Each structure stands twice: as C-alpha cells, then as structure tokens.
Amino acid sequence: FRAWCQTEDRRPPKTIQLTQILESLTHANSGWVYRWGDHAVGLYNSSLEFIEQSEKPTEFSYPWNGENPLTLPNHQTPLTKKALQKWGLETDNIDWENITIRSRQPGDKFKPKNRQHTQSLKVLFQENNIPAWKRNQTTIIQENKCILAVYPFLF
Question: What are phi and psi for residue 144, nearest 5 degrees?
C-alpha cells in the first residue's frame, strides 16, 4: 500500500492508519472511503482508488459543435465525436449547434435506452452502485435541454 502511494505521488498513511485501512478493507463494500490528512482512498467495484478531494465538484458548461476535441475538467482524455460514437451514442441525428457539455446538476433527469421514462441521475447512480466521488466526475452531454448521455457511465 505504501509503495502504491509513493508511485501515485501521495503521502503514505502512518502505521496506525495503515492498520485501520487494512482491517476495514476486509469487510468493506463498494463506496467505502478512508481519509487521512489531505488524501483519501475509496473502494469501487473491488478496486481501490485514490479520490481527488475537492470541496465542491468542478462546475462547467461549454457549447460544443463536435468538430474539435474538448478537454474536460474531470477527465484525462479529451472528448471527441468519434469517442462518443465508440461509446454508443448515435451522432448522425444530433443538432451539433445546440450541444452543451456540462457538469451534473441537482435534479438532472435522463432517459436511458432500456427505459420508457426518464429517471433522476441520483437514482440511476444508486441503482448502479456508483459512489459519490465518481458521481462528481460526471459530464453531461445535452442537446438543447435534453440529456443525451452521462459520460463516462453507460445507462
């Protein structure tokens, strides 16, 4: 664990903290989080991850015509039209002049392909066991006021 911290340029926990982490991990569920100092780790789908700590998620809203790659605050890989196509979004019928790429907002609703009605993102995240720190990294792709996709999650 300490070696992993160092490879990630993070300060390793003290011995007592490390003991607490290892003991609590033996019975932890997805969504478990441990914080020490200005660092935190969380368990998501049986994988331990460092959590970027910020008091508030980054709020953003950009118009995007899909022509040029768009660098997003919460993602390392720029967003491209080709990436959206690979991801399963049908881009042929999109009105690219009315596309907005934005951060998630309270009360957002989305109609997944496999459902007949819209559902709040909060409920979709809960149903899919997506922890809070992952939810804050969500990017909304919308046409006019209609959410087309919740990146990087497939609903």
Answer: 55, -120
Of 154, 102, 110, nearest to 128 (Cα)?
A: 154
| Cα distances (angstroms) measured from residue 1 to each of 42, 68, 80, 89, 102 | 13, 40, 35, 38, 35
Quote the pTM value. 0.72
Count CB-CB contacts under 10 A for residue 103. Answer: 18
- Name the H helices within 9-142: 15-25, 81-86, 121-127, 132-135
**Pairwise CA distance, residues 123 & 153, whole Å:** 14
Give 94-151 pLDDT, tens digit per residue.
999 999 999 999 999 999 888 899 999 999 998 888 887 888 778 999 999 999 999 8
